[in-house]
Amino acid sequence: MKKITIAIDGYSSCGKSTMAKDLAKEIGYIYIDSGAMYRAVTLYCLEHGLINGDTIDTETLKSDLPDLSITFKLNPETGRPLTYLNGQLVEDKIRTLAVSSKVSLVAALDFVRTAMVSLQQQMGKEKGIVMDGRDIGTTVFPDAELKIFVTASPEIRAQRRYDELQAKGETGSYEEILQNVKERDLIDTTRKVSPLCKADDALVLDNSHMTISQQKQWLAERFKEVVGE
Ligand code: DC
To answer: What string of DSSP letters covers the chain?
Structure first.
């Protein structure tokens, strides 16, 4: 069967990754979480003192960026990808609130986006890939055969992220997380380079009131329609 490219974009914490990962596993495609790549760069900045409040030392980052290695390896137990930064497993570190609260600043830098987009295009050149993010259907793979734009209300997304962090034993109030979700929406949709927006040919999925299994089924049906099964 011919392999296609699947682009899943949408707001933060709206369950894109879960549905993208599960679909990729089911259909035997590679899954790439492009947000994890921006998070890994942000972690690097934090660990190297390149972020001071809302200011980033762009000169140092620009010169360090070509030497950063961001890779994914499948967790053999769960079949899900794990993120590595310069060979170190950083999957948990990149999901903390410290990284979440700075990642939009880093993702708004044009030279960071250029480097990440080129890496992402390289990863998808053989097709057979499901990639999720903000600009996958618009900038990274404008010719993707299946494009989905996922959305849900900020309150529902904040509650989902709060539950996720609680389950990992991280602290953080619901209000703080809701504020972070709203701030990121604003930065993601208004930044100059590749702002989050729906591609004209993307299908919209509002999953505010859907269960994970309903979303999975919806996506599997869209995939079958495109590949003609
Ligand atoms: O999907 P996420 O919440 O892990 O993404 C983290 C941040 O990275 C988010 O603030 C938006 C940014 N991002 C982006 O600008 N472009 C992408 N393709 C993916 C994520």
So the answer is: ----EEEEEESTTSSHHHHHHHHHHHHT-EEEEHHHHHHHHHHHHHHTT-EETTEE-HHHHHHHGGG--EEEEE-TTT--EEEEETTEE-TTGGGSHHHHHHHHHHHT-HHHHHHHHHHHHHHTTT--EEEEESSIIIII-TT-SEEEEEE--HHHHHHHHHHHHHHTT----HHHHHHHHHHHHHHHHH-SSS-----TTPEEEE-TT--HHHHHHHHHHHHHHHHT-
